[in-house]
Task: structure prediction
Amino acid sequence: MRSYWLRCIGCGREYPGSSRIYTCPACGDLLDVVYEHGDEVSRIPWLRGYGSRPLGVWRYRELLPVEDYGKVVSMGEGGTRLIRCRNLERELGVGEIYVKYEGDNPTGSFKDRGMTVGVTKAVEAGARTTICASTGNTSSSLAAYSARAGLECVVLVPAGKIALGKLSQAIIHGARVLAVRGSFDDCLRIVRILTRDKRFYLLNSINPFRLEGQKTAAYEIYEQLSGAVPDKLIIPVGNAGNIVAYWKGFGELRSLGLIDELPSFVGVQAAGAAPIYKAYVEGADGIKPIKDVETVATAIRIGNPVNWKRALKAIRETGGLAAAVSDAEILEAQRLLASREGIFAEPAGAAPIAFLIKASREGLVEGDERVVCIATGHGLKDPGIVVKTFEKPPEVDASPDSVLQALEISAKAV
Ligand code: F0G
Result:
């Protein structure tokens, strides 16, 4: 029989899996879910087609910490496409480029993988009200999953700093949205204080169950590559939960004897919000929080990432690196991905491609490498940025001639 419990990543103290704690009561560090598996793990149909268990988070239910699979709050999350990008391969001179397109998820970002598990745990714990701080996507996802579970939802977002698509999702799903005059880090600080009160159930990535759902993306990549592991995994980093989730996912595949090595993890931050990159470059043991953060990639506009410790570990232990890309590089990558491959990612989701463009120019990737870039959110989340960056479409009269004139095509050639 499988059992699971919580273990502090700092002092190693352990707590029952049913404890309603988000951090270690003894030392305050974050918690990890650890398992002891029985032979139920053999029921996961690794590499055996997707038949009755489609690709997605719950295909791997034996590796997830829920009590009753029949009661999960789910909308079919995960099972996102891994898209081969041959045009970019040619353009950048990289062996194999794949984009794991997390925009395919029910609310348009990878957050749904974590929320299906996290909100299921909230229901298990008897919670009535969920709460999160968010740069946008967490709020969209939590609002939707809370609605489905019949829970009240409260979200705190930095005023004026969240993309329109995300805000509209949180509102339509019925969350109580508060725009805080402050940063994401301020919002999270407040949420951490409020959730000392058991009326609120915290669903930021401090919650260890969120990362359990998110780790399934690593399993999917392994299956979608027919049992292979990429050389590099390139992933945007904000609060640094997702990179830790992938690290855990690939680590578990290794523990299960399915793979020998982990990919090298490349964590990409926006240059205007890059505390992990700075710590990496300086070879420091810890990060220095940054107060004034700014980037077009509002999803990763975070100066004090809670999951920094394991993120740095994931990068260092896999022989990877931390990188920072400018807003101009992010927007160039977003355009390139959309115009060459038909993949529309929001700016944060395009940050890995921005790194790849730069790395290929600087010879940091080999011509025969296989890389997987995680496009974490759908481009339609943030239409404003495209409208702002590109010229407005010209208006023309309602006649074929004016259309041709505007297109500068001679009427005779048609
Ligand atoms: N990409 C997107 C599209 C995101 O929304 C986020 C985080 C990240 C990358 C970074 O992931 O925080 O796990 O390192 N968004 C959070 C939110 C913070 O509130 O929606 P991370």
